[in-house]
């Protein structure tokens, strides 16, 4: 399997997107630790029960966010990979990945509906499950409505070792 060569235009677009990505807050807050962290009945999510509940209720503010709206599939994949690697290197634990919801209206007659839509909403979870990114991630779940709901994902990163 050969790798696709990135064009100069794509590289410049990626570098611009990367420069524009900013953390939501200047530094991550230290996580509160309980004496016995367990994943409880949530299986192998990599997130303890208390954190899982706080995420479900939208009580945890993400350390950083990336908005993939308007990007091509290839540009979004590159931006997501770089963003997650950088976020983990900076010690962030919870990041928000905004994909958008796709077409909210069912107007089948519009010309733009003839092409695929909601591609990033479908592809981002697949990319997060690929070996390249899965090793960085402890848990992925839909974001609370206050952080984008069905058009965004919470990605809880593994601790740096």
How would you characterize this protein structure?
The chain is of the alpha+beta class and 161 residues long. The chain is built from five helices and four strands; from the N terminus they run ααβαβααββ. The chain has helices at 8-20, 49-56, 73-89, 119-129, 131-134, and strands at residues 64-67, 94-98, 137-142, 152-157. It has a four-stranded mixed sheet with strand order 1-2-4-3, with helices on one face. Helix 3 (73-89) links the parallel strand 1 and strand 2 (94-98). It is globular and about 45 Å long. Residues 31-44 have low confidence and may be disordered.
Which structural traits does this protein have?
4 strands, 161 residues, 5 helices, alpha+beta, 4-stranded mixed beta sheet
SSE order? HHEHEHHEE
Strand proportion: 5-15%
Low-confidence stretches: 31-44
Strand order of the largest sheet: 1-2-4-3
Distance between the termini: 32 Å
Question: Structural class, judged by helices and strands?
Answer: alpha+beta
Coarse shape: globular
What is the number of helical segments per DSSP (H or I, 4+ residues)? Answer: 5
| Biggest beta sheet attributes | 4 strands, mixed
Helix content: 25-40%
Q: State mean pLDDT (0 to 100 scale).
A: 78
Radius of gyration, rounded? 17 Å
The counted number of beta strands is 4
């Amino acid at each position: 399997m050969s790798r696709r060569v990135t064009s100069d235009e794509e590289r410049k677009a990626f570098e611009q997107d990367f420069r524009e990505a900013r953390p939501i807050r200047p530094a991550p807050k230290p996580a509160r630790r309980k004496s016995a962290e367990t994943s409880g009945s949530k299986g192998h999510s990599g997130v303890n029960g208390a954190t899982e509940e706080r995420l479900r209720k939208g009580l945890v503010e993400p350390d950083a966010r990336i908005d993939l709206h308007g990007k091509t599939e290839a540009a979004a994949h590159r931006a997501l990979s770089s963003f997650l690697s950088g976020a983990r290197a900076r010690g962030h634990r919870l990041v928000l990945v905004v994909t958008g919801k796709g077409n909210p209206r069912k107007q089948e007659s519009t010309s733009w509906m003839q092409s695929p839509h909601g591609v990033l909403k479908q592809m981002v979870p697949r990319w997060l499950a690929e070996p390249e990114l899965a090793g960085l991630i402890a848990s992925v779940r839909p974001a609370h409505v206050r952080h984008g709901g069905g058009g965004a994902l919470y990605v809880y990163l593994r601790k740096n070792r």
